[in-house]
Design brief:
Low-confidence stretches of chain A: none
Distance between the termini of chain A: 26 Å
Number of helices of chain A: 4
Order of helices and strands of chain A: HEHHEEH
Helix content of chain A: 55-70%
Largest sheet of chain A: 3 strands, antiparallel
Number of strands of chain A: 3
Strand order of the largest sheet of chain A: 1-3-2
Oligomer: homodimer
Strand content of chain A: 15-25%
Mean pLDDT of chain A: 92
Structural class of chain A: alpha+beta
Radius of gyration of chain A: 16 Å
Shape of chain A: elongated
Amino acid sequence: MTGVPELLLLRLLSQEEMYGYELVRKIQLVTGEAIKLGEGVIYPSLYALEKAGALKAKRRKVGARERVYYSLTRKGRTRLQKLEADWVRIRDAVNLAGEADAVS
Amino acid sequence: MTGVPELLLLRLLSQEEMYGYELVRKIQLVTGEAIKLGEGVIYPSLYALEKAGALKAKRRKVGARERVYYSLTRKGRTRLQKLEADWVRIRDAVNLAGEADAVS
DNA sequence: GGTATTTACCTTGAACTGCGAGGTGTTAGC
DNA sequence: GCTAACACCTCGCAGTTCAAGGTAAATACC
């Protein structure tokens, strides 16, 4: 209904490229622990977004360890804008419904 | 993740008892067309909530036509409070993430 | 009188989402 | 040498949401 995980991923990646494990912790950080998305959510989401052409992956060796960095494509930026708009629409609608309800 | 449909249902029914078909239109009305939940969402939700003890149903004849009116139980009010709190948590977290992201 | 729309109920099957719990191997600290 | 953190990945379930159907009565329209 709201697509919150995807929205958060695209938002963060629109700022700077990051890798999966990093995103898991970053999301907890920027939401003040309120939203915790596990790796079981993050990794499949990243693959789906990459497959959809919204993200591009870049494998990079850091020492002997490999990380997969993701960044937004042009298509990804378009998608982010749409998700932001959707979110605002839903958020405001729910708030509106709350007020209308309280008043009625 | 957010349980928006259930939240809207419980909110509306906490104000006054209503029947399924009425709820479908009411939700469109109070959200300014932004959220449209079809009968395929509403009816199963109502049954589930009734089964969970959050709603009670009252069949009433209006003319020769029968309507099923739903209203909140005490358990339903508790559940509504929890959902409201959850919603605020998610909403604020997403907003917070947006700001943190824009600033960083 | 007949027909179309609206009211009102309900079900089904599928798609999509989200997640916990698992597994592998690497690096760092003690 | 051992434990904890790092970093990747997958599986299968459970829950949510939906479009599309179907029934039947009431109303509106011609």
